[in-house]
Specification:
The chain contains 2 helices and 4 strands, in the order E-E-E-H-H-E. By secondary structure, it is an alpha+beta fold. A 4-stranded antiparallel β-sheet has the order 3-2-1-4, with no helix packed on it. It is globular and about 30 Å long. It starts with a strand and ends with a strand.
């Protein structure tokens, strides 16, 4: 899977894209509200791990993660 952190502008908040190995969008959620999106795709138990990576990830970079 891949994580992409997207910088928001003006009133649009920062977002995270979670994509599979085919680069298909699996989840798109606000950095400060990942709960529902990750639960919906079955990754609620991995939320702490994913958010730890997101906190350290610079905006605009793609990070490959293994779940």
């Amino acid at each position: 899977m891949y994580l992409i952190k997207v910088k928001g502008v003006a009133k649009i908040p920062d977002y995270v894209q979670l994509r599979d190995d085919s680069f298909t969008l699996l989840a798109y959620f606000r950095v400060d509200r990942p709960d529902k999106s990750l639960e919906k795709i079955g990754l609620g138990d991995k939320m702490a791990y994913i958010m730890a990576i997101v906190r350290d990830l610079p905006f605009g970079q793609i990070k490959k993660i293994e779940l």
